[in-house]
Input
Amino acid sequence: TGPTGYHISTADSDMPAGTAPLQLSPGGDFGWMKKTYSWVPRAGAATEYSYGERHGHNVIAADFGYVADTTLTAAPGGTYGAENLSCISCHDPHGKHRRLNNGLTRDSKPIKASGSYNNSPNPDANSAVGVYRLLGGKNYVPYSLSSVVSAFVNDPPVAVAPSDYNRAESSTQTRVAYGRGMSEWCANCHQNTHNESSGGNLSHPAGNNAKLQDSTVNNYNAYKKTGDLSGISAKSYLSLVPFEEGVADHTTTSYTRLKGNAVSNDSQPNGPNAANANVSCMSCHRAHASGWDSIMRFPVGNEFMTVADGTGTPIYPDPTANPAQAMGRTTAEFQKALYEHPATNFAAYQRALCNKCHAKD
Output
């Protein structure tokens, strides 16, 4: 059941048809990959589909009903084979990379605790803490795959999550403080997605050097919802469109700053600034799975995220009354896929949250 603790997959018996997976960690619930949706957007139109395998990273975990991707046989922009993708493709179970007071190390001092959370202890003279989510770093490769996949070339990102990260955001948001390096880490498997000079297919800037321009920062900070650009930078953060803060390194000094921003009580609602902030893969996507195609944090399959009731109040679309907007999801599934953000947080006929950065573009 959930959402609870570190769980990242809802059992089949806990998500019958019409109900959503239960877990709400920032990375998402792999259960969404078992949800395939179909709908007819309007009378006479062809049936449209949102296939489960397009909702996340198709990890192989046969005991839990997860199988390899049948369409994308290798990582988009890379060569990592779908038949080899498992949890340890990304997470190092031995945690060889770890953090000291002055940066990352490998196979050095023993790990005394996780380093992923806002209440994680700092490293000390005798011990280290784990890197974010025990992600693999430079030279990491699962031992059993060392002859068939390439070792990582980039280290784990600088990031911190609040300790109560698996929760609904119906009243307050869960803010993961992303510092830097998330997109670079993703490029361990999606190399050419981030390298246009070698024939890559990057369609949106992302990474440590993709600093937000003044116009984008102004858009983000002003944007509250469709038709409302009255926001201010001190209260503009939106967990459905996070950004990297540009924190420089893996030192304790940097993590102290990030820990202060990694909260779930809305006490740190500040938006980005052009001097440091940048867009990353996590700005639009979740790491594990989501309720939307391409692991998006918000829907882009239709122009509108909400509709309106008879009084003009924003509501989430109903699959019978609003088939094109609902895209096969029940209203409960739609809201859960948005981490329980109330529809009233948005405008009636709210447009896709790409507008958080691009409203005036």
User: Anything to note?
Assistant: The chain is about 10% helix and 10% strand. The longest helix spans residues 252-261. The longest strand covers residues 97-100.
